Amino acid sequence: MKITFYGAAQAVTGSQHLLEVAGRRILLDCGLSQGRRQDSERLNREYGYEPASLDAVILSHAHIDHSGKLPGLVKNGFKGIIFSTGATRDLAAIMLPDSAHIQQADAEYLNRKRAKEDLPPVEPLYDLEDALSAIEKFVSIPYDLSFPIFPGVTLRFLEAGHILGSAQVELVLEENGKQRTLLFTGDLGRFDRPILRNPDLSSRPDFLITESTYGGRNHELQEKSLLDLEQVVKKTARRGGKVIIPAFSVGRTQEVLYFLNLLFVAGRLPDIPVYVDSPLSFNATEVFKLHPEVYDKELRDLLYAGHSPFQFRSLHFVQNVGESKAINTMKEPMIIISASGMCENGRIRHHLKNNITDPRSTIVLVGFMAEHTLGRKIGERRETVNIFGEPYAVNAQIVDIDGFSAHADSDALMKYFHAVGENVKQVAVVHGEKRSAEALAVLIGKDSSEEVEVVIPAPGDSMYIDGTN
Q1: Which residues contact 199 (CB under 8 A, 6 or more apart)?
Q2: How far apart are CA 171 and CA 149, in angstroms?
Q3: Which of 8, 38, 45, 124 could tie 15 with a disulfide, CB 3.0–4.6 Å?
């Protein structure tokens, strides 16, 4: 029983962990890396393993940094099964083709510029056919059902509370007369948040692989985040500017809409239009409506009363490129929500290009920005940033509101560990920048016996689940 960490090791993106057990090779997640363009391009085109040698992929959730490399995996020879929850499969069915489209569109845009400079064209990582081939390999398994996927390997998905369909991955493993339980958090959500259920605390693993995005840091209170958002919108509207919110199409966009709806209904915001500029966001919001089984009681009560938090009078979903371009010709105050959340691709870069130099406008950062991404550079208040290879002065106001994050913070991660960790012998801390991973590892070490091994693996590091390295 061996696991090797190929992605999201001392980093936040590119989640990939290879499990070898009972003669099978099983990949936990297969996500795209984001960060320095050159480094990410290399990581997203390379594999530290042979894709054709894999028997299966188990997908924790549909976010692109966990699922976005699946079409490339298929393109390079993978012929196995992709296991996920039903909601994750439905989201992947729209997100992976969208990823292929974005890569194609971005490549075409860059190649027009490169041709003028006599530079060779860039190729997208994969195309629509590769994405559709990946979707055909999905097999959906309901939450909380123990399902034998291979002899000696039993899978159970547990609610993670991060985005629609997100799951912790519990694997009961048997090999050479030994039985071990492995638990992979995927991206762990927050407790007592709107829309989704709380993370499930029922597993009791021997080996825990935990995310650490916010290790050592805690989120601000929800009411403060609401107040901050209210003040940002009011001040920006008075200046005649636009509020630009980079947000992932799945999860973050729906949560921001939920809170904007609360503010509009309460009369706390001026009557200005809200544009969600991402066809994927519209489609993902429709998928949300198909899966009430994952909602918490608060959202179910709203829906059964006939009130959708994802629809209100001033809300407009932008469906095509022409409508997207038209937004940038409008002069009146507005709120624009667009993907991707880390500003690395998609239509958000065009909105930033058109508004980042305007001191009347405000860019609101509502989620974690990985190192070296455009979103992180904006959050660092750099004087200039490059967008599509061109420098732009950052004259817009920059505001961070981290209370909308869909990741568990330090206190929530420790609450989770206290619940599930009573039998844990080994912990691998992943999906966090090194400082965050180290902070969480220290906290777990303090709350564990000396027999518990806590490791922060580097890319390519391996661990044996029986405790022998």
Answers
A1: 158, 159, 160, 161, 168, 188, 189, 191, 408, 416
A2: 10
A3: 8
How far out from the chain centre does Cα 1 lie? 28
The residue count of the chain comes to 469
Closest CA to 378 of 360, 353, 405, 403: 353
User: 16-25, 111-120, 299-308: lowest mean pLDDT where?
Assistant: 299-308
**Ordered structural domains, the chain, with CATH:** 2-217+406-464 (3.60.15.10), 222-404 (3.40.50.10890)
What share of residues in the chain are helix, strand, coil (percent, to 5)? 35, 25, 40
Q: What is the token pair recorded at 166?
A: 């997100």
pLDDT for 469 = 41
Give the separation between CA 112 and CA 121, rounded to whole angstroms.
9
Average per-residue pLDDT for the chain: 90
Q: How many alpha carbons fall within 13 Å on the CB side of residue 168?
A: 28
Across 360-378, b (16+ Cβ under 10 Å) vs e yields bbbbbbbbbbbebbbbbbb
Per-residue confidence (pLDDT) for residue 249, from 0 to 100 = 64
Burial of 84 (0-12, 13-18, 19+ CB in 10 A): buried
Q: Are 466 and 180 in contact (CB under 8 A)?
A: yes
Residue 217 sits at the vertex; the CA angle it makes with 216 and 222, to the nearest 5 degrees, is 150
- CA–CA distance, 386 with 327 (Å, rounded to integer): 22
Beta strands in 65-221 (DSSP E): 81-84, 138-140, 147-150, 153-159, 167-175, 178-184, 207-211
Burial of 73 (C-beta count, 10 Å sphere; 0-12/13-18/19+):
buried
Average pLDDT over residues 346-375: 90
For residues 403 and 218, the answer to whether their CB atoms sit within 8 Å is no
